[in-house]
Specification:
By secondary structure, the chain is of the alpha+beta class. The chain contains 16 helices and 21 strands. Helices cover about 35% and strands about 15% of the residues. The radius of gyration is 25 Å and the shape is globular. One of its GO terms (molecular function) is hydrolase activity.
């Protein structure tokens, strides 16, 4: 187990991530506030995000103003519409710390306070807080239609926002609202007579209550989180019983199996990652977190088992998870179609939550490697470089003609959307990016070893004057692998620093205080004694271009290659290459030239691959084979996957046909 009680003061100095942090504070969060305030319309092709709103605007803040008595009107939106504001509030609360980096956050802070006031005004006397039910339904219907009502999901996201606000500001105003919410839930749910004996159809409250416990020290919140985990799936008839008893109905045209809700069997018995990807991942992250806090071995084993199944059989090379459009779900082992993938942005964000929790139980380089893969690929692909347009779905192969002409691919967008009817992803991205500092280090339970597992330049102050400053040479990470850790230990504490050696780095060099050293790699880390007043650790990673093959179990990628460099997965875009892209190929030993282009896509590494392109002597749809197809030499241009769709709309592909 690890010790997460040590307060960290993290100042991110990375050029790459400072740009994303500042973009989120200055562009994305103000833009999202305008969208929540009905100043930005829903802008997404039909089929890209389902829902029952049918409105051109969000109405999220308007719902809260009506519930708080500030406006007249009726509820509009998804049952979980409040969560768009809650996630924004969490992201914006973390963003307030950018004031220390010289950013003006006055307007953002005013909006944060306004949002808290609205939630405070909307909350019922008993602590209940969900504007869909407060405005649309009688009180006796509350918690009676949990299959689709999202009530605990909605309240859970507010609790998480309140915890973030408290951690950043020290103010208990939002936290007090959250504790009243938790009291309401604790009063209504449990094994007692008259209480609700089952879970919400969308996990989230489990994570929220665990975080509330960490913020307040109130053991009852941790116990309630554990109850929700243990009760899930124990009564497969629970939702049907609520429906039969006259509970409120939502999404009546959607008939999802219990597996979708992670309600088909007890979660602690589940062997494979199944069902709606975000639901499963939120729950798995909570199982890991609560398992660590309670030292519950069955929970810890479940969290490990599901993670292993995902990363070995159900995750794309970009970190995307959820291969099936129907139910935004996992399908079966090694089913990873590139052009039908769902790969919801929220699912990649949830993988970071999950990985962080696993690292807090047992730090391992393999888990940190996946977190890095998600950060630089699966997460960042979800947002346009200026922070004002978003992907809900993250394909590995896209074609505008296919998305327009084939209904089974209508969910694959070839341009990011300005806003969604179901707008869960934009603020989820925001709350991850603005809390990035929480994902860089893990501290051992005895406080003696600091695991530095993400290569994000920063200066971090730990307890008792112990400080680590990570600097990066040249174009900096992820383009350069030249990394130095400057460790200051003025009080001579018994300390060690463990530095991750990524699995993708075939070779590396390591120096400690200017001397080359060879240290054993244990669980993906090299550990350096840092008891001296000053210690310098210099790591140079192998940033050479890699050609990657998928397992032969992955049918979709047979006969294809992907290209990666450092943590970055690359792709081809039609704006750089002649279409159709599927005619292009490359060999496993193809010559690759690389260059950093600072003025392209806010600064990216560009690869030029010596490849080839298929040619046909006729344009016939079918013809008898009389000779092998010919290929002509072609230079293939590849850019980082996360940066695609920031110029012109067109085809994109990650996997390229392999030639001899």
């Amino acid at each position: 187990m690890t010790n997460q009680a040590q307060a960290l003061n993290v100042n991110i100095t990375s050029r790459f991530w400072t740009r994303y942090l500042n973009m989120t504070v200055e562009n994305a969060l103000p833009y999202q506030w305008r969208a929540l305030n009905d100043e930005v319309p829903v802008d997404v092709p039909e089929g890209a995000a389902w829902g029952e709103n049918g409105s051109q605007f969000s109405h999220s803040l308007r719902n809260l103003r009506i519930a708080a008595g500030r406006e007249e009107g009726v509820f509009s939106g998804q049952p979980f519409q409040d969560t768009d504001v809650s996630k924004w509030l969490e992201a914006a609360s973390y963003a307030l710390r950018r004031k220390n980096a010289g950013l003006n956050v006055d307007e953002l802070e005013a909006h944060v306070n306004e949002a808290i006031e609205l939630f405070e005004g909307a909350q019922d006397e008993d602590g209940y807080l969900d504007t869909k039910f407060e405005l649309d339904l009688p009180a006796e219907k509350r918690f009676k239609g949990l299959r689709w009502s999202h009530e605990l999901y909605t309240m859970g996201h507010f609790i998480e926002a309140a915890v973030a606000h408290y951690e950043v500001t020290g103010s208990k105003r939002a936290l007090d609202i959250a504790e009243r919410v938790a009291n309401c839930i604790g009063h209504n749910f449990g094994d007692g007579e008259g209480q609700v004996h089952g879970p919400d159809g969308h996990p989230e409250i489990e994570l929220a209550l665990a975080r509330l416990y960490e913020a307040t020290g109130e053991r009852r919140w941790l116990d309630l989180a554990a109850w929700f985990i243990r009760v899930r799936g124990t009564d497969p008839e629970f939702f049907d019983e609520q429906d039969a008893a006259g509970g409120p109905q939502f999404y009546t045209d959607l008939h999802m199996p219990l597996k979708y809700f992670v309600q088909d069997e007890p979660i602690l018995d589940k062997q494979h990652a199944e069902g709606h990807a975000v639901r499963l991942l939120y729950l798995a992250a909570a199982v890991s977190k609560v398992g660590r806090l309670l030292n519950d071995q069955k929970m810890l084993d479940t969290a490990e088992r599901l993670w292993t199944n995902i990363v070995k059989h159900r995750m794309y090379i970009t970190g995307a998870v959820g291969s099936c459009q129907v139910g935004e779900s996992f399908s079966f082992d090694d089913d990873l179609p590139n052009d039908l993938v769902y790969g919801e942005t929220c699912a990649s964000v949830a993988m970071l939550f999950y990985g962080k929790s696993l690292m807090e139980t047992k730090p391992r380089g393999s888990v940190a490697d996946v977190m890095e893969k998600e950060l630089f690929n699966g997460v960042l692909s979800g947002v346009q470089l200026d922070g004002t347009r978003y992907f809900y779905v993250n394909p590995l192969e896209a074609d505008p003609a296919a998305s327009k002409g084939n209904p089974t691919k209508a969910h694959i967008l070839t341009r990011r959307a300005g806003w969604f009817d179901c707008a869960c992803c934009p603020a989820n991205l925001g709350r991850l990016i603005t809390s990035l500092d929480q994902y860089l280090y893990t501290v051992s339970n005895d406080g003696k070893t600091v695991y530095a597992h993400q290569f994000v330049a920063n200066k971090t102050e730990f307890e008792d004057g112990f400080t680590i400053e990570q600097t990066q040479a040249g174009d900096e990470y992820p383009w350069s692998g030249d990394i130095t850790f400057h460790v200051s230990n003025p009080n001579g504490l018994d300390k060690k620093v463990a530095v991750r050696i990524p699995q993708w780095s075939k070779d590396y060099t390591l120096e400690v205080n200017g001397e080359a050293v060879e240290l054993p790699v244990v669980d993906g880390f090299v550990t350096v004694d840092a008891s001296a007043a000053d210690t310098e650790i210099h790591l140079v990673l192998d940033m050479s271009v890699r050609r990657v093959r998928a397992s032969l179990r992955v049918r979709a990628d047979i006969g294809k290659l992907a290209v990666a460099r450092g943590p970055i997965v690359f792709c081809m875009e039609q704006v750089d290459n002649e279409g159709p892209l599927w005619l292009d190929g490359m060999s496993a030993d193809a010559n690759v030239s690389e260059s950093y282009e600072p003025d392209l896509l806010d600064g990216v590494e560009v690869l030029k691959v010596k490849g080839s392109r298929l040619e046909s002597p006729t344009d016939d749809q079918y013809r008898a084979v009389d000779a092998p197809l010919t290929e002509r030499e072609e230079t293939l241009t590849m850019i980082p996957y996360y940066a695609w769709c920031n110029r012109a709309e067109g085809q994109m592909q990650v996997w390229v046909r392999e030639t001899k």
